[in-house]
């Protein structure tokens, strides 16, 4: 089975456009079409529905896709194991990450990563929704959420401690809550459908349903609204550590930690093998963030 044909099929499954998929691999539309025809002939099944505007996977194509991905990963791992033409990982690494975290804590490290692995091309897509890695053709995803898909393999990159914050302006005007139950008297800024906050107390977890005049579906907007004095909000340290250091935000209820086991994960769609380029990416960023992550260290130093 021709690996180049498989690569093209995998990209078609993501782009649904034969010209676009072929262009990514340096093929003309005519050559790309021939390659897909040869792949279908070798398998004896039709993998794609074709129209003049787009292509889509047949039922057989859907069934074949995860196996094609596995074959490509196995081939890349095998070539790397014997040093077949590569001194370092190569090819295109397709990554998806949450927009806010990606901009703050990934883009700034990419220059160093790409200098270390000059044969890699990075295709980084930002999205705050959970994307299907196989359907989207991604090699790895950064996720800050509970891992629900058992077909994915996950590695923890960093902790994701969360704190209750407010601006000095808000606290001067409305006062500082001394215990979690006093939040009923305050404006609370929430992400959509996340208005119940749970804190660790000496008597065990304490949950409270918060209310406020503003809510949003974007973490950056929530942080910025908090800086502007619209209320209190729960934020990841990686999102607000610079504002806590500068004094734009103040941690509230530090003696009542927010109850959360959240972490930052790298996930990839393989149950057996991890491609060298994926391993290189995950190892790099796990080391780059550190233990504890650098934002926790900078915050501790900045608050001395």
UniProtKB/TrEMBL annotation:
This protein's UniProt keywords: DNA-binding, Transcription, Transcription regulation
Record has Cell division as a keyword: no
Cited SUPFAM superfamilies: Periplasmic binding protein-like II (SSF53850), Winged helix' DNA-binding domain (SSF46785)
Start and end residues of each HTH lysR-type domain: 1-58
The keyword Transcription regulation is annotated on this UniProt entry: yes
Molecular-function GO terms, alphabetical: DNA binding; DNA-binding transcription factor activity
Any Pfam family the entry gives: LysR_substrate
Similarity field: Belongs to the LysR transcriptional regulatory family.
Designated name of the protein: LysR family transcriptional regulator
Species, as recorded: Shewanella fidelis
